[in-house]
Specification:
This protein has 558 residues and is an alpha/beta fold.
Length: 558
């Protein structure tokens, strides 16, 4: 089928790709056979090659099989970005277990819900989070915990100091533990039998159960098959023209779909080196780019804001970056332009959602890059705009909901057949994102369907206000939120973080908004803050702010 976006594809990108029907672990094993001595990870300066990663995952997989962990068992990964994550991830895939990667920032109560929802009986974590996981032993089905030490992957002498710190943390966790806490590295160092083979896995089975961030309500488990994950890795490699000569900086957490697929699986498929950062820090990220010269990285807009606002950012050389892939939240003109002017880095905006593994659209490398657009659908992705009532397809330029058909589509929501049926209709994935397609086949997101603010019967898209916020010279970060209002139904409130050494007033911003917005779109409240709630990948959480306002209204009513 011919689509308008095909004529804007880069010449190297095919309209359709061949996707091998193989388990996810083949991404690693096949590359290790091709490039055994090529570096796969660099962590705090220490490298690991593909042959070593494959062997480590084989060893751990063989040990897991002996422990009775295997087909369709759910295993939680509560791990940061370090080589231990990759070893555990691929080892679990090799025994046909289901990887359940969870956010490190989750509270004990959030983890309790997710452990129980998934039914996980095993967890793999680091000493830093061991006490938090141990606290779940009587509230969940948890039977055993594997502990991976960060120190095991650090160069000397950093490993000595870290080992002492982690030993203290683990000792504290053991004091209240009534279940086994096993050192993962001892299993990794026990060589797999010569005849070891990964489990015979159906590529249509679930490989990963990844939970939505809960930004629009209760967190849901998204079931991703081996086939969908492998297909997405091939799509990303084709679009990004990835080769083993590339090096990617992985600062986005690998437990998130964006980090897992873009920074890990597709990079390993291509034979790339992955520079791992365990957490985001703007100065450390700038130093790492300057020192290790990655050709690629993936980011969210707030990361670009933080880098742009670094003092003396011009001292760091970002010219090695042929692309900074940006997604997960809207990239405003102000954020994009400021980052590119200050660093010389090149941003390429894209789009994805965990229900389709992750990235499924992006602007082309060589072709027309339209500012504000999430780009063109990847190979084999069909996309349409339909009316908000879901009844009919809309023509170019008209705003509605984006729906998709893609080989990377989720199997469904775990134990939530009703919500699955609402999201996947006649083979189409209803994304909940509002946008439009121009005549060239480029897509644009105007907002989330659930974020739409209705003021006195008028639809207001928060992104329009957010765009305006970032164009103000005093604004570092900001977001608009719709909050309940007895008279108008909803009213608009904005939250603003000012740049360092800046001062501002409500009147100043009200005049600014009135100058650029229709009256019903002008925010009625402005709150200046020093920080805003964010997800693990740095996405500002609009829902959390809205919930805060609702709680305030309830308190006043009482």
């Amino acid at each position: 089928m011919e689509h308008p976006w095909f004529k804007f594809y880069d010449k190297t990108v095919k309209h359709s790709l061949n996707y091998p029907e193989v388990p996810v672990y083949r991404l690693l094993d096949d590359t290790a056979n091709r490039y055994p001595m090529h570096p796969v990870t660099r962590f705090m300066g220490k490298q690991m090659n593909y042959a070593s990663l494959k062997q480590a995952s084989d060893n751990l997989a063989a040990a897991l099989q002996k422990m009775g962990i295997g087909s369709r068992d759910k295993v939680v990964l509560l791990l940061p970005n370090f080589p231990g994550f990759l070893i555990a991830y691929y080892a679990l895939i090799k025994v046909n277990a289901v990887v359940v990667p969870l956010n490190l920032l989750y509270t004990e109560s959030e983890l309790e819900f997710l452990f129980n929802d998934s039914g996980a009986e095993t967890a793999i974590t680091i000493p830093m989070f061991s006490a938090k996981v141990v606290s779940l032993q009587k509230k969940t089905k948890l039977k055993q915990i594997l502990i991976s030490f960060i120190a095991d992957f650090l160069p000397f002498p950093l490993n000595i100091v870290q080992k002492l710190r982690e030993a203290k943390l683990l000792k504290k966790a053991r004091q209240s533990a009534e279940i086994e806490l096993l050192p993962m590295q001892s299993l990794v160092q026990t060589k797999a039998p010569v005849n070891f083979k990964p489990a015979n896995t159906d590529p249509q089975q679930m490989a990963v159960l990844i939970y939505s961030g809960g930004t629009t309500g209760v967190s849901k488990g998204i079931m991703l098959s081996h086939q969908s994950i492998v297909a997405n890795a091939y799509q990303i490699m084709a679009w990004g023209r990835l080769t083993k000569e590339d090096r990617i900086l992985a600062v986005l957490p690998l437990f998130h779909g964006f980090g897992m697929s873009v920074c890990m699986n597709s990079s390993i498929l291509a034979g790339m080196e992955i520079v791992l950062l365990p957490k985001f820090d703007a100065l450390n990220m700038a130093k790492t780019i300057h020192k290790y010269r990655p050709s690629l990285t993936a980011a969210v807009p707030t990361i670009l804001v933080a880098l742009s606002n670094l003092a003396n950012v011009d001292k760091f050389d970002f010219t090695c970056l042929k692309a900074v892939w940006v997604g997960a939240a809207p990239l405003t003109d102000g954020i994009k332009n400021t980052f590119e002017e200050k660093t010389g880095g090149r941003t390429i905006e894209g789009y994805g959602l965990t229900e389709a593994v992750t990235a499924i659209m992006a602007n082309p490398y060589d072709g027309t890059h339209k500012v504000g657009s999430i780009g063109l659908p990847f190979s084999d992705v069909e996309a349409r705009i339909i009316s908000l009532d879901g009844k009919h397809e809309l023509p170019f330029g008209e705003t509605g909901e984006i729906i998709l058909r893609t080989p990377t589509m989720m199997m469904g929501y775990y134990d939530r057949p009703h919500e699955t049926a609402e999201t996947i209709v006649d083979g189409w994935l209803f994304t909940g994102d509002i946008g439009y397609m121009d005549k060239d086949g480029y897509f644009y997101i105007t907002d989330r369907k659930k974020d739409l603010i209705i003021v006195g019967g008028f639809n207001v898209f928060p992104r329009e206000i957010d765009e305006l916020l970032y164009k103000h010279p005093k604004v570092k970060e900001g977001i608009s939120v719709g909050i309940p209002d007895d008279y108008k139904g909803e009213r608009i409130k904005v939250y603003i973080i000012l740049k360092d050494n800046e001062e501002a007033t409500f009147d100043e911003f009200e005049q600014y908004f009135r100058k650029h917005l229709t009256p019903y779109k002008v925010p009625s409240e402005i709150e200046f803050r020093s920080e805003l709630p964010k997800s693990a990948i740095g996405k500002i959480l609009r829902r959390v702010l809205r919930d805060e306002e609702i709680e305030k209204l309830k308190s006043k009513a009482n």
